[in-house]
Amino acid sequence: MNPEIISWLLEGDPAIRWQVQRDLLKKTPEKYELERKKIAKTGWGARLLALQDPNGYWGGGLYSPKWTSTTYTMLTLRLLGLPPDHRQAKKVCKIFLDQGFYSDGGINFFSRAYWKYSETCVTGMILGLLAYFRYPDERIHALASHLTGQQMTDGGWNCDSYKGATHSSFHTTISVLEGLLEYENTYPERKEKIVKARRQAHEFLLAHRLYKSHRTGKVVDPAMTRMPFPPRWRYDFIRALDYFRACGAPRDERMSDAMELLQMKQKKNGLWLMSSGMSGKKFFDLEAAGQPSRWNTLRAWRVLNWWQANPQTVV
């Protein structure tokens, strides 16, 4: 990899620097954890933490307004790599469970007079946050069990399954997969059932070549071919690739379309640009759309390194 690109990445926010050290430079934990601790003290992480109100919320709500609510701010802090033992994050984990844990074992932040079941996508998000921040509460196991019980016959998940949906949603599936992976990493003793569910969901994504119709081969949604960050609730091809990298999945020929798309988006200088994200209220942009992106360049290079390090394909 070009040393100039590494130098450029290391000029970025601590959230970028520690992941470059871990994922691209393969530094020891002693080295990159020192950089990771800076997230709470300076840069994007410190700015977000400073916006938390005395009651522990951001934006005045648990799930809305988008994208300044407590849920979406915590999702961003997790992506930045805020250390799991951070006090402010732990406080929010308690709020999530005390305010959202529902009788069916999932998370329901919505009006229970009208919403009689947990929201699958949100439950996946909250499971990932609770597991990442190592929140010690037995209810976390109920969330994982609820999600495995909601898995559809095609291998994925859909938050509209209660309304009769029969085909899984890319958006719901990636949120659940990320949550289950975080849970599995935190509770390896419960791995067996989780691994089985994740593998079935992998087949759902792979059957669609990560962003295409399994019937026609056409792109399901052009937004899935973009590279925004943070992704919020929306699925896109690099989010899926980075998930497969993070879980150490074997290289699979059915990922090749997505890998080719990733390489097509690379500029001549070896960088990737930031795509515009979803509309809505934000505290601030991490990076400007249309400009060279440290986030996307970091994510793309680590995906490429993972792909190249696994030459054997699985069909």
Low-confidence sequence ranges: none
At CATH level 2, the architecture of the largest domain is Alpha/alpha barrel
| Count of helical regions | 13
Instruction: Give me the secondary-structure category.
Output: mainly alpha
Task: Give me the strand/helix succession.
Answer: HHHHHHHHHHHHH
> What is the quaternary state of this protein?
single chain
Number of domains: 3
Q: Percent of residues in beta strands?
A: under 5%
Question: What is the name of the CATH class of the largest domain?
Answer: Mainly Alpha
How far apart the termini lie comes to 29 Å
Could you report the average pLDDT, rounded to the nearest whole number? Answer: 96
Per DSSP E runs of 2 or more residues, the count of β-strands stands at: 0
Sheet bearing the most strands, described?
none
Summarize the structure in short:
The chain has helices at residues 3-10, 14-24, 29-36, 43-49, 70-80, 87-100, 120-132, 139-149, 170-186, 191-207, 237-246, 256-264, 294-308. It is mainly alpha-helical and 315 residues long.
